[in-house]
Design brief:
- The protein has 19 helices and 24 strands.
- The radius of gyration is 35 Å and the shape is globular.
Length: 642
Amino acid sequence: MLLGQPQDSASTSSVAGKSGKAGRFAVAGLLGALAIGGGVAATAALRAPEGPASSEEAVELFFAALDNEDLVGVAEVMHPGERESLAQPMFDMAGHMRRLEILGADADPAAASFLDIQVDGVTYSVEALDPGLHYVTTTGGTISAPNNPQTPMGALWDRFDIEMPEADTTRTIADMADEPMKMAVVEVDGSWYVSLYYSGAEAARRDAKKLFPGLGNGPDPVGAATPDAVMEDMILAISDLDATGMLTLMDPSEAAVLYDYSPLFLPELQEGMDDAAAAAQLSDVEWSVDLVDFVANEVNGRQVVSLNEIKVSIEVGAGELSSTPVSGSFTIAGGCTTIIFDGETTQSCASDTSPEAEAARELFDRLLEVADLSDTTVRAFERMAAVDLGVTVVERDGRWYMSAMPTYLETINDLMTVLEPADLVAMGTDIEEIVDRQDEIGEEILDVLMDTDWEAFGNAERLAELEGLFGQLNNNGSPTLDFGDGSFGDGSDDAAMTDEEWQQFLDELEAGGAEPGTNPFGGEDAFAGVLAPSIEGSFDVDADGTYLAWFGDMTAAPGFEAAAFAYSGDASVEIIRFSAPVDPAAVLSSDFTIELVDGTTQATDQFGNTFAFVENYVIWGETTSAEGEAVFNEQVTFLKGL
């Protein structure tokens, strides 16, 4: 094959074939395959000093490694930056998975025979886009693998008697002429490597029909002088809306493709940021990073930086976004978060000893007791909580840069490092018990919440308003109204009361100023006529055909103003007036069916309890009977006419 010739220049690969295998495999699928790797052999491969001497050799070795189910061999021909930032963490992760008995000990990355990959007669063409970047397209041959290979699983699955799906032995051979595999091969320090990232970037460029930018035409890496300064400079670049500044702090080995392809996206990205800055200036919005400080620590052999202090200030002048000027700041320092907005300060600290913080910790401890986790599980979570988490930074030629993929992948490895097989067994056992006891646990959690002194958390007025609103709309519509020393509407079934209880109930009404057996509504207030006259006589409580009705002043409860209720054995209706319109989505659970009826939002549960929302009013009625539905509809019509 002659390099730099048109794409139809091709050569047959020297990969030997194995018969009786079929399926499909693509370059992107390497990520999942590498996840089963790990061990000394893989680490040695990732540190190999030299790579293939030509793009053809890289392609030949790539397909040969696939054919031999040799993931270590695949890693050897990967771009060095991708090996270090992607393959190495995934090999390490798989090593932890074998140690924790998630994967079987025979999941050997150097001979992953369960993948059962077959490569036969591959031919391909090479397009020289740049002296250091060739684009390979297969023109013939086949590649196959099982549709669902059976990955060797560890003992953890057997301990919980989890049945794994059976391997799918069906196979489909992919013709790489009809469905060509395309990959970018890149020269790094005189050697050639297959690149997942460049393959993706080049495919995207071609789809977008943009000209190839050439290698080395992006900005030069800048980095930072120290590990902690990397993220400090990154925060400042973000604050300044400086796209180039952000890019030049990225690892030039891992993110080499971003540097090389940046002429295709960086100008447009910066233009968008400039437009955002201009829009903010027109809206008289200003922000600044007044303080930023990160701390670097060594975690499992690499540098990880985490936030220590930061202060961000913002000012919004009078204009489109605010009718009056406002200003504020957000500060994290000394384990405390401080928010200052329009002159009011709110602060919370990890070591806060305020009554509100103590109440929150007490509530958390009580909820944790309900879960009844084992000591092993609790200790495992404590070890994971003690792991230093942050952003991974790497050194290149004396400068420090942010490394993206290791920040994510190595964080998982850091957490797995502190675990043992017994921890996963304990966690799994606790989860099983929680699932088995979910109804009991739900009731215990509810008991804890109901027995909690919410006033201790601060902002008691708002909490009381929410608590009352939820209670109102989820307690069959029956309010708890205060009539002097007595109360009613606790959710009990009034029709099932004993004679003594019923009499006490009526006595409490009378003590509160209500007169059972009469219609107490009248006067100028529109709410005085909430129970429409049309229902009079419909509630047969007494032998003389009168009905029970009352009106309660609820202004003592935040958010409530008044309530009226009428009841009989066949129909009930209740109307509550709030100080502001009620949002149905904010107060109703998923148990309700919500629909729009003649322009009014109505919600019905499985028991036939229906709510209607009309401005500041919420109407409740039992609509399973024809009489109840008629009474409910009358009240909806009446309130809509107010």
